[in-house]
User: Which sequence fits this backbone?
């Protein structure tokens, strides 16, 4: 986006002046920011109005956490920091969960909150919504800044942008006290004070010896495996990542949000043989994936544990932009520090430069994976072919699977426990960055915020597969979806409770069990209340019809899909983290 002229406020002053409001807006526009996700109120109401008047898209939410989640995922999808704007203290705190989640997931986001008067806050004299927001945000953000003077707005916004997108991306907090907005200054001086950030996320080229080390180790492998994480999806190096995988012939495993980086139907995908390849691989190359709980910290039973075969102990290559990530859980034999685009392209160049034929992995390894995969795929096909009454997760997801196959550009938002885990393994993705889910924290409540942002940013249809419990965290945003007339189809897998609807209160008292909801709830009516389309379905054929109609019409739709309340397991596939969970 080119340079913009600051808006000029005509006053009685002898020369044109600008003010804090306009400097914030101009600084954002100057840096290519075109959308703000937020919720108006004191002291930022006028900022939202003036931003809209200045041509920014302002998407107003019903709760700041959802606006924050929207900003964070917009950052993931676009590599530009997503902006969330909130009021002071309570609004700021509501946005803070999303900011912390963005930092945890390495999503670039800037939470901008209005705040109360420093002089009163610091002396704790009881201002309106008094809170030391900067101090509270600091430990949860990658960086946090406060601007006190209008002439520093340019620097404040520039620093926030750089901090959010450079190196490992993350959440940044920008504190703007109420008084700042009304400060005025000479318009020309104001324009000059703004900074258009040059090269906000500089490439980080890996060292030549690190590339060679990684390549040697990869070459020496008998049972190599590439693990793609959401960092690889974020990097937008899709063609090179695919080329590396296809050129080397190495099987790969996508983490949840890396699904679709290559189509899930790719013959080298080992997703359907996950529990086989992790302990069996001898060299694992992590590409933008951390060895955190989602990968059992690289240790234990998932990876072969102490029973690993003599040849089974893994060696790791890790590509990551953050040098500190290396050795976080296990030894990394070949750290490759740099941005994924540069690292993968350096590996490809080195492979080509060697001029030698790159031997595909040994046939025994590939055929062992194919065999295991074939069994799992056949088992899955058999399960999906069933049509039980009442409908269960599998028969419902069989429909979703077909809909995504027919509409590969659609974005799939997904949260819940069983609704999350079954969708991940059943619904194939075909394009990069099309699956948006609960991420590193397994957080509930991202659903509607992600869905709104996905639709706003991409203009593509969005399908949100939601557990009924998960939906409750952000459900009021269906009004937002209707207000902006977004092409979002929310499908609620309604099984009457958290995990299921069958728990009973053991005392026989009047309260229901903690995990159950109102039985037979009609979430579809919620969408109808705001002018969207609500559909109640109990059979896969009805679900199919409703989803196809939603995609065709592009109208806000909520499908209340009634699922067998006994289907699924407590905590989905992570029951091991909940050792006292009721086993089936
Ligand atoms: C995968 N699988 C398949 C397919 N894809 N089978 C057939 N066809 C296809 N297409 C198989 C795969 O090999 C596994 O079987 C199984 O399905 C599950 O695969 P998944 O989902 O990749 O693996 P798993 O074990 O669930 O992965 C672990 C995990 C994941 C921790 C990465 O569970 C995860 O991302 N969890 C997030 C959970 C979360 O955040 N929950 C929110 C809180 S809920 P086997 O190989 O036979 O094992 C609060 O309660
Ligand atoms: P997943 O949950 O899919 O396994 P993680 O969020 O754990 O993925 O890991 C993502 C990793 O990717 C982080 O360690 C982060 O530093 C890294 N990363 C993010 N963007 C880039 C990039 N452009 N280049 C290199 N590494 C990146």
Assistant:
């Amino acid at each position: 986006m080119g340079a913009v002229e600051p808006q000029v406020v005509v006053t009685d002053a002898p020369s044109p002046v600008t003010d804090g409001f306009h400097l914030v807006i101009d600084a954002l526009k100057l840096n290519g920011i075109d959308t703000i996700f937020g919720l108006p109120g004191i002291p930022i109401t006028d900022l939202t109005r003036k931003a809209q008047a200045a041509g920014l898209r302002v998407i107003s939410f019903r709760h700041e956490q959802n606006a924050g989640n929207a900003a964070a995922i917009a950052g993931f999808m676009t590599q530009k920091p997503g902006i969330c704007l909130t009021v002071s203290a309570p609004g700021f705190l509501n946005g803070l969960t999303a900011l912390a989640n963005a930092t945890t997931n390495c999503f670039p986001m800037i939470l901008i909150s209005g705040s109360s008067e420093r002089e009163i806050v610091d002396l704790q004299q009881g201002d309106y919504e008094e809170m030391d927001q900067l101090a509270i945000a600091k430990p949860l953000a990658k960086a946090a800044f406060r601007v006190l003077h209008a002439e520093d707005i340019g620097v404040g916004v520039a620093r926030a942008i750089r901090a959010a997108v450079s190196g490992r991306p993350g959440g940044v907090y920008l504190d703007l006290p109420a008084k700042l907005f009304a400060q005025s200054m000479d318009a020309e001086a104001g324009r000059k004070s703004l900074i258009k950030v040059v090269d906000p996320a500089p490439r980080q080229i890996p060292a030549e010896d690190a590339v060679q080390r990684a390549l040697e180790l990869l070459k020496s492998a008998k049972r190599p495996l590439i693990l793609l994480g959401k960092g690889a999806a974020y990097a937008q190096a899709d063609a090179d990542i695919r080329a590396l995988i296809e050129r080397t012939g190495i099987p790969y495993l996508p983490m949840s949000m890396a699904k679709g980086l290559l189509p899930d139907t790719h013959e080298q995908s080992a997703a359907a043989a996950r529990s086989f390849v992790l302990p069996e691989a001898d060299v694992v190359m992590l590409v933008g994936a951390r060895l955190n709980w989602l990968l059992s910290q690289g240790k234990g039973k998932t990876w072969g544990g102490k029973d690993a075969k003599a040849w089974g102990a893994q060696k790791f290559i890790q590509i990551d932009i953050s040098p500190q990530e290396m050795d976080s859980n296990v030894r990394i034999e070949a750290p490759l520090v740099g941005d994924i685009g540069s690292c993968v392209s350096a590996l490809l160049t080195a492979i080509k430069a060697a001029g030698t034929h790159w031997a595909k992995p040994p046939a025994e390894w590939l055929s062992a994976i194919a065999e295991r995969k074939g069994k799992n795929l056949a088992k899955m096909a058999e399960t999906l072919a069933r049509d039980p009454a009442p409908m269960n997760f599998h028969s419902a997801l069989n429909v979703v699977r077909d809909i995504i196959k027919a509409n590969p550009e659609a974005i799939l938002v997904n949260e819940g426990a069983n609704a999350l885990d079954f969708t991940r393994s059943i619904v194939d993705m075909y394009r990069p960055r099309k699956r948006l889910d609960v991420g590193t924290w397994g957080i509930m409540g991202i659903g509607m915020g992600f869905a709104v942002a996905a639709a706003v940013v991409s203009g593509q249809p969005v399908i949100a597969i939601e557990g009924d419990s998960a939906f409750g965290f952000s459900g009021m945003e269906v009004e937002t979806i209707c207000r902006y007339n977004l092409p979002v189809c929310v499908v609620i897998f309604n099984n009457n409770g958290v995990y299921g609807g069958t728990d009973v209160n053991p005392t026989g008292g009047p309260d229901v069990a903690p995990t159950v909801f109102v039985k037979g709830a009609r979430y579809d009516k919620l969408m109808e209340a705001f002018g969207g389309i609500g559909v109640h379905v109990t059979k896969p054929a009805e679900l199919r019809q409703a989803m196809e109609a939603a995609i065709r019409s592009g109208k806000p739709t909520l499908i209340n899909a009634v699922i067998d309340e006994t289907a699924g397991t407590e905590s989905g596939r992570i029951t091991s983290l909940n050792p006292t969970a009721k086993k089936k």
Remarks:
- DSSP finds 22 helices and 19 strands in the chain.
